[in-house]
Write a structure and sequence with these properties.
The chain has three domains: 92 residues, Orthogonal Bundle (Fumarase C, Chain B, domain 1), CATH 1.10.275.10; 204 residues, Fumarase/aspartase (Central domain) (Fumarase C, Chain A, domain 2, Up-down Bundle); 96 residues, Fumarase/aspartase (C-terminal domain) (Ribonucleotide Reductase Protein R1, domain 1), CATH 1.10.40. The protein is mainly α. The strands form three sheets. A two-stranded antiparallel sheet has the order 1-2. It has a two-stranded parallel sheet with strand order 3-4. A two-stranded antiparallel ribbon has the order 5-6. The model has no long low-confidence stretch (mean pLDDT 93). The radius of gyration is 31 Å and the shape is elongated. The two termini are 54 Å apart.
Length: 459
């Protein structure tokens, strides 16, 4: 086993269990590409600034590129005994180059190195997540365009409330997801600041050029306080928060799909490729994907709480507690990507049962508000209209009827304002088509929503 970089201070080897407990190679190895990317930029700067000989800088860069190629090709495997990915790559470089490899760590610490690596890694991951969110929004838009006139009940308290369209319903999630995308974009902007050059906590006496490294790595700015550069993980917490909100929206959508594909609703049917059966009940077709998304949402919330709790009592600057940031944020990222990548094709392949949706909308007196509005438009105060309509609903329940087939004389018993045109006013199609207010369910209004979402996606 290779000796530790810091072994000179110690008179005996670290206990094997402590070594295993301290090691992070098992989970931070995934950042190897970003660690090498950062080291190449650092080596370039060291050479350009004359801190190390330019020939050694070039040798280090070529050595790092070869290590990257060997890992990608499977010719170099991670050493499980290495303390972390940073030491694994540095030790491999030193084995290949000798003393030149040892010069790479000049003017930096693992504290600012890991802060850099995780920003680089998460910066790439956020782009992937945003791409998946865009794809989900596009899938919702296609679904909405196919269902502009598919009437369904809108709900409050999970009780049928007013008629809307399926397009209107799913476009609500498109709006939520646009805000989720905005949070991810904002997170990525704040994340894109260079911590390298902060060193352990107090910068360095070497004449480094942090602006050069910033430009090489594509950061927007340099972090202006070296303590801050190495000691905060607010960008991890912010990303975990944005992912948690995104997962909450996915979970709500999943819950509705669970309801919709039940026999009690039967509004949709999932494609066989995105459902599972039962080991004992042959009739079952279970929406396992959506159920797992609901469950995994709690897992992501746990990751966020882990990060918040980990950081809440830490004095400046770096503390080993912060090693716990990676598993939590990596799990959040992996989980949301997995959920999005399975939810998208499930949604795009599901069958919409428009007839069942309309039949459900025809029940439950969801056009009662429109009946009251009919009276208001003819001059009656809304509260009076509300009471009259409530009485009519009670009459319908007593007689086993609905408002659409309640005889006109029953209407007139409650108010002589009613006339035969009430049936047109309370028809489901009228109820939906006349709700043209901005943001409403009328097809022309939903088309405006779709247009807005498309512009946001393309903008």
């Amino acid at each position: 086993m290779a000796s530790k970089m810091w072994a000179g201070r110690f008179s005996k080897e670290v206990d094997e269990k402590v070594n295993d407990f301290n090691s992070s190679i098992s989970f931070d190895a995934r950042m190897y590409r970003h660690d090498i990317q950062g080291s190449i930029a650092h080596a370039t700067m060291l050479g350009e600034c004359g801190i190390i000989d330019i020939s050694e800088s070039k040798s280090i860069i070529e050595g790092l590129k070869k290590i990257l190629l060997d890992i990608d090709n499977g010719d170099l495997h991670f050493d499980p005994n290495a303390e972390d990915i940073h030491m694994f790559i540095e030790e491999e470089l030193t084995q290949r180059l000798g003393s030149a490899g040892k010069r790479l760590h000049t003017a930096r610490s693992r504290n600012d190195q890991v802060a850099l690596d995780i920003r680089l890694y998460l910066r790439d991951e956020v782009k992937e997540i945003i791409g998946l969110v865009d794809e989900l929004i596009e899938t919702i838009v296609v679904l909405a365009e196919k269902n502009l006139t598919t009437v369904m009940p809108g709900y409050t308290h999970l009780q049928r409330a007013q008629p809307i369209t399926f397009a209107h319903h799913v476009m609500a999630y498109a709006q939520m997801l646009l805000r989720d995308k905005g949070r991810l974009v904002d997170t990525a902007k704040r994340m894109n600041a260079l911590p390298l050059g902060s060193c352990a906590l107090a910068g360095t006496t070497y004449p480094i050029d942090r602006e050069l490294v910033k430009d090489i790595l594509g950061f927007d700015e340099v972090m202006l306080n070296s303590l801050d550069g190495v000691s905060d993980r607010d960008f991890c917490i912010e990303l975990a928060s944005a992912i948690s909100i995104l997962m909450m929206h996915l979970s709500r959508f999943s819950e509705e799909i669970v309801l919709w594909c039940s026999w009690e609703f039967k509004f949709i049917e999932l494609d066989d490729a995105y459902a599972t059966g039962s080991s004992i009940m042959p009739q079952k077709k279970n929406p396992d994907i959506t159920e797992l998304i609901r469950g995994k949402t709690g897992r992501v919330y746990g990751d966020l709480n882990t990060l918040l709790t980990m950081m809440k009592g830490l004095s400046l600057a770096y503390n080993k507690d912060m090693q716990e940031d990676k598993e939590a944020i990596f799990d959040s990222v992996d989980t949301v990507k997995l959920c999005l990548s399975t939810f998208i094709p499930m949604l795009s392949t599901m069958n919409v049962n428009a007839e069942n949706m309309r039949n459900a909308a025809a029940k439950g007196f969801i056009n009662a508000t429109d009946c009251a509005d009919y009276l208001v438009k003819k001059g009656l105060p809304f509260r009076d209209a509300y009471k009259i309509t409530g009485t009519l609903v009670a009459v319908c329940i007593e007689k086993g009827l609905i408002l659409e087939n309640l005889p006109i004389d029953e209407y007139k018993k409650q108010s002589d304002i009613f006339d035969s045109d009430v049936y047109e006013a309370i028809s489901l199609d009228t109820c939906v088509m006349q709700r043209k207010s901005q943001g409403g369910p009328a097809p022309e209004s939903v088309m405006e929503q779709i247009k807005y979402v498309k512009e946001k996606l393309n903008g």
